[in-house]
Design goal:
The protein is an alpha+beta fold and about 170 residues long. The protein contains 5 helices and 7 strands; from the N terminus they run βαααβββββαβα. Helix 3 packs across helix 4. The two termini are about 25 Å apart.
Length: about 170
């Protein structure tokens, strides 16, 4: 992957990066809140499973209500990917806290469509396989559970050019 020639790199503008940082803050806040409030970690370490008895079900509801924003934040943050166009496919810069790149060959792209997602009309690129979190993004945008999705937000620089490039390669 070191010898891949990047034709064009598409990154986010400053305004969109600020939105990503807001979701990262929510993730950290709710994760910290969960660790403070959830006595189940201590109970599981002591092998005390009485925490999960019927008497404690209301407490579990509180913990689940904290876990859902954590899950939502992870999926939304993972929706924002920087994308590099190569001769042989797309290089997706997946970042949450760890930055890594995942290559998607042109042949693995299934389709591209427009949908409403997080109050924006975005382009959804369905691919055969990317990461587990990209499969979760597919659930969020409503395009299925068997494929992964890459979301192209309006804040991605030259997004129309990227969409046109992808559509041209799908048509081939």
């Amino acid at each position: 992957m070191e010898n891949l020639k990047v034709i064009k790199h598409h990154s986010y503008d400053r305004y969109t990066r600020e939105h990503i940082n807001i979701f990262k803050f929510f993730f950290l806040f709710f994760s910290f809140l969960f660790l403070i409030l959830f006595p189940g970690v201590n109970a599981l370490i002591k092998n005390d499973l009485t925490l999960f008895d019927a008497d404690n079900l209301p407490d579990l509801g509180v913990y689940i209500s904290i876990l859902l924003p954590i899950y939502f934040s992870i999926v939304v943050i993972n929706s924002y990917n920087e994308i590099s166009v190569l001769d042989t496919g797309l290089l997706i810069h997946v970042y949450f806290f760890l930055h890594f790149r995942k290559f998607v060959p042109w042949g693995d792209i299934i389709q591209i469509q427009e949908k409403m997602y997080l109050s924006d009309f975005v382009a959804i690129v369905q691919v055969k396989k990317l990461t587990f979190l990209h499969r979760e993004v597919s659930k969020f945008v409503g395009v299925g559970t068997m494929t992964s999705s890459i979301v192209i937000f309006p804040g991605l620089k030259d997004n129309e050019e990227l969409i046109e490039t992808i559509q041209n390669h799908i048509a081939e």
